[in-house]
Amino acid sequence: MLSKSNFIILIGVMAGLVIGLGCYTFIYAKGYSYLTDDPSACANCHVMSQQYNGWIKSSHRSVAKCNDCHTPASFVGKYATKASNGFWHSFYFTTGWFPDNIQINERNTKVAEQACQKCHQDIVDAIDGPHQQANKTPCITCHKSVGHME
């Protein structure tokens, strides 16, 4: 059992760690930039430089930013996705446990697919027809490099 003074010290140490990590994340590592829609935030860590540079050269640069394709349209969905992705990107970047060729996960693939369909609904309907929802071919099957020119 912890004494009251040891408990207070433990709480102080834990609070200091949380504040320290928060300051590191949001000040030094520019974590605040991920709360914006600025595409350059995606290139804060050099691991994403290739994707950012590809987007700069792509046709989508003039009509879509990273968040338009990689986060859900709703406020809660957008920031929940940004928080989850930010944590895992930071974790993998810090530990070095990421593949050289970064891969999008299943959940984020679905988010991107929904964005494609939202912006290109007329084309999607013309190709798939209004009643063929079950067997749709994902847009990125054929258009994998459209947003990033990889």
How are the SSEs ordered, and which strands pair?
Blueprint: H1 4-28, H2 49-57, H3 66-70, H4 75-95, H5 106-119, H6 121-128, H7 139-142
Protein architecture, described:
The chain is mostly helical. It has two domains: 1-35; 42-142, Orthogonal Bundle (Multiheme cytochrome fold). Helices cover 57% and strands 0% of the residues. The chain is built from seven helices and no strands. Helix 5 packs across helix 6. It is elongated. It starts with a helix and ends in an 8-residue tail after the last helix.
Instruction: Work out the helicity level.
Output: 55-70%
Number of domains: 2
Mean pLDDT: 86
Shape assignment: elongated
Tally of individual helices: 7
Strand content: under 5%
Radius of gyration: 20 Å
CATH class category of the largest domain: Mainly Alpha
- Strand elements, count: 0
Structural class: mainly alpha
Give the terminus-to-terminus CA distance: 58 Å
Unreliable stretches, pLDDT < 50, 5 or more residues?
none
> What does the largest sheet look like?
none
CATH superfamily of the largest domain: Di-heme elbow motif domain
